[in-house]
TrEMBL record:
Organism encoding this protein: Corynebacterium durum F0235
The keyword Hydrolase belongs to this UniProt entry's keyword annotation: yes
Signal peptide stretch: none
Phylogenetic lineage: Bacteria, Bacillati, Actinomycetota, Actinomycetes, Mycobacteriales
Residue ranges of every copy of the HotDog ACOT-type domain listed in the record: 1-98, 146-260
Recorded family membership: Belongs to the acyl coenzyme A hydrolase family.
Protein name: Thioesterase family protein
One GO MF term: long-chain fatty acyl-CoA hydrolase activity
InterPro entries for the chain: Cytosol_ACT (IPR040170), HOTDOG_ACOT (IPR033120), HotDog_dom_sf (IPR029069), Thioestr_dom (IPR006683)
Length: 307
């Protein structure tokens, strides 16, 4: 994970996005864009040198959307025993390649007991996602603040391109993890790892050559965790940074760890400005909503298997 001796969380999300994209395109038969990545559980770090397997499968479909469940497993090649490192839900929307508008997709009809279970689990997350989006829409981030913050700016490079000529969603998620990791490491003075991401929402595509601004801001600390909000903004660099528009919004939870990966107490952040206090309460509300709606698990417990 980011900041520890292994693969960073952003790179893991990039792998997931590529595998889920292949699953979505295979089902829809057309170009697709990432709309949402959520319920991301980072179970453990993936050590460098491990064999990695990414599994993606359709959970349910809407008119033009596909809800895809993803798992990342890894194993020491000397032992060959795969265990889960991360799981999440990714939603793609199918696009007409000529008009760029949403395109209907074939309906997925679950038949097996496992397919029905996963479908029900995906359905149980819809109302929670709407409640979270409503809560997020109430927030503003432009008032006086003393919160720890990390802002990076750069140009989107040709190597960041996806199959549709825009910036790859997985690449953008790696940007998010890098900025949030730097923010939490600077605040805590420790290596930090991502343990959970409640949702990454994609509002608009990012063009190659755009000026990118990744803005990571600490919202709240608890006994061990640090909750961070990240905004990715983009636009024509000739128009200047003040013309950048929101492209992606994410909330991620990190913990500090020692050299052995043991979680450490978080350095407390005490909000004092009106906006910082409100956003700290907002972070707590998001957590309470997840507890209130209690969605069904997408993934069954996994017993380690050999390759």
């Amino acid at each position: 994970m980011a900041g520890s001796h292994g693969v960073n969380g952003g790179r893991v999300l990039e792998w997931i996005d590529k595998a889920a994209y292949a699953c979505a395109v295979g089902w829809s038969g057309t170009y697709c864009v990432t709309a949402y990545v959520g319920h991301i559980h980072f179970t453990r770090p993936i050590p460098s040198g491990h064999m990695v397997e990414v599994r993606s499968r359709i959970a349910m479909t809407g008119r033009s959307s596909m809800h895809i469940v993803n798992e990342v497993l890894s194993a020491d090649p000397r032992e060959g025993v795969f265990t889960r490192a991360c799981d999440c839900l990714v939603i793609f929307v199918a696009k007409d390649t000529k008009t760029g508008k949403a395109q209907p997709v074939p309906t997925f009809e679950p038949r097996t007991e496992e397919e029905l279970r996963v479908h029900d689990a995906a359905m149980s997350r819809i109302e929670l996602r709407r409640a979270i989006e409503t809560e997020m829409d109430k927030q503003t981030y432009d008032g006086p603040s003393e919160a720890p913050r990390m802002i990076t700016r750069f140009l989107a490079k040709p190597m960041d391109v996806n199959w549709g000529g825009k910036v790859h969603g997985g690449t953008a998620m790696e940007w998010i993890d890098e900025a949030a990791s730097a923010c939490t490491m600077e605040w805590s003075g420790e290596n930090t790892v991502a343990v959970y991401a409640g949702g990454i929402r994609f509002y608009r595509p990012i063009q190659i050559g755009d000026l990118i601004e990744v803005d990571a801001r600490l919202l709240r600390t608890d006994a061990r965790s640090m909750q961070v909000v990240v905004h990715v903004r983009s636009g024509d660099p000739r128009s200047g940074r003040n013309a950048l528009e929101n492209a992606i919004h994410a909330t991620i939870t990190y913990v500090g760890v020692d050299l052995d990966g043991v979680p450490l107490p978080a350095r407390p952040f005490v909000p004092r400005t009106t906006e910082d206090i409100r956003l700290a309460e907002h972070a707590l509300t998001l957590r309470d909503l997840r507890a209130e709606y209690a969605p069904k698990p997408l993934i069954k417990p996994l017993i380690g298997r050999r390759s």
